[in-house]
Design a protein that fits this description.
With 158 residues, this protein is of the alpha+beta class. The protein has a single domain, classed as Gcn5-related N-acetyltransferase (GNAT) (Aminopeptidase). Helix content is 35%, strand content 28%. It has a 6-stranded mixed sheet, sandwiched between helices. The protein is globular, with a radius of gyration of 19 Å.
Length: 158
């Protein structure tokens, strides 16, 4: 009897596939395996698996009460489903989860040369907030402070 791989195996495989596709530039870390182990242990994940294959995932952190920020540490979509809306759906899920943990911003680092990722994040409402070497820090406000409501009488006079 053959068992289906766990979701973690699918995530691990997709990371390695993308690392090879990008000639080692997806993750600029000393040990890719150690990084994968760390995020599998500590990050929250939203994943899409079908037919035993991971088609995409987001690894993120949103449970640190000392910061108003949620942080996407890794976002990978399989090439065969890019442009399908999967990335936007996963990002929406992260936004919902982060709001539930009282986060007000969603942040991530992206390579300046990754034009398709930059366009995607900008279309989703992210804006650059910091630049460092070959990376941009981008943020998306996900919780808006509501100002005081106008009295009904003021609205009717306008």
């Amino acid at each position: 009897m053959c068992s289906l791989p766990s979701w973690q195996d699918g995530v691990r495989s997709l990371i390695w596939e993308e690392q090879h596709r990008q000639a080692g530039s997806l993750l600029s870390v000393v040990s890719v395996e150690e990084y994968i182990d760390k995020i599998l242990l500590h990050a929250d994940f939203l994943c899409l698996h079908t037919s035993g294959k991971c088609l995409g995932f987001v690894a993120y952190y949103c449970k640190d009460a000392t910061t108003p920020d949620a942080f996407i540490t890794l976002f990978v979509i399989a090439p065969e489903v890019r442009g399908s809306g999967l990335a936007a759906s996963l990002l929406n899920g992260v936004t919902v989860q982060s709001r539930q943990h009282n986060c007000s911003r969603l942040k991530l680092w992206v390579h300046k040369e990754n034009a398709s990722a930059l366009r995607f994040y900008q279309r989703q409402g992210f804006r650059s907030c910091e630049s460092k070497e070959h990376m941009l820090l981008m943020e998306l406000p996900i919780r808006f402070e509501q100002g005081p409501a106008l009295p009904l009488s003021n609205l009717m006079e306008s």
